[in-house]
Amino acid sequence: MCQRAIYPGSFDPVTYGHIDIIKRAQEIFSELIVAVAHNPQKEPLFTVKERIDMLTKATRDLKEIVIDDFDGLVVDYARKKKINVIIRGVRMISDFEYEFQMALTNRKLSPDIETIFLMPQESYSYLSSRLLKETASLGADLSCFVPAFVEKALKKKLARKP
Ligand code: ADP
User: Mind listing the pLDDT tens digit of every residue in the chain (162 residues)?
Assistant: First the structure.
């Protein structure tokens, strides 16, 4: 097994859904780069460094995982890293249209790069960082969605938000 892959995303913040996909990809690929997109247009709650630190902590027991960040097109980043597999997670049907469009756009830009979709465990299939931020701001218990240190960071960050 010598194939390497990239799992790009905002990870704002990392959830058990992301970790589930990382573990599945890690079983298939010899090296996985989890790449945090800067994505300023999405106005992330956490800085790139905070997102990287949380991912590093959440994956510290996993082998052959590299956490990195990138700005710009994921296909350019993949080419720079000499990797031709992009991993994405699909949850509900609602993800499908957007993910399909993005995968086909990336294929048009870079025909040699393949996107592979992985499905999470059912119990995470409705979990998103966006919904998590909304429920956190309403004071919900998030222990079944994110590691305790992420919940703490999330609540601290939201408490500081005007
Ligand atoms: P992006 O802004 O690139 O969509 P996200 O961090 O929201 O960044 O998601 C990164 C990838 O992880 C996407 O492919 C998304 O579908 C997938 N993903 C996010 N949450 C889950 C989850 N709960 N289960 C499976 N895949 C997920």
Answer: 469 999 999 999 999 999 999 999 999 999 999 999 998 888 999 999 999 999 999 999 998 899 999 999 999 999 999 999 999 999 987 788 999 999 999 999 999 999 999 999 999 998 999 889 888 888 889 999 999 999 999 999 988 776
129 is catalytic: yes
Quick one: three-class SS letters along 69-137?
EECCCHHHHHHHHCCCEEEEECCCHHHHHHHHHHHHHHHHHCCCCEEEEECCCHHHCCCCHHHHHHHHH
CA-127 nearest atom, ligand 1:
23
- Model-level pTM greater than 0.90? yes
88 tagged catalytic: no
- Which amino acid residue places its CA nearest to atom 4 of ligand 1? 9
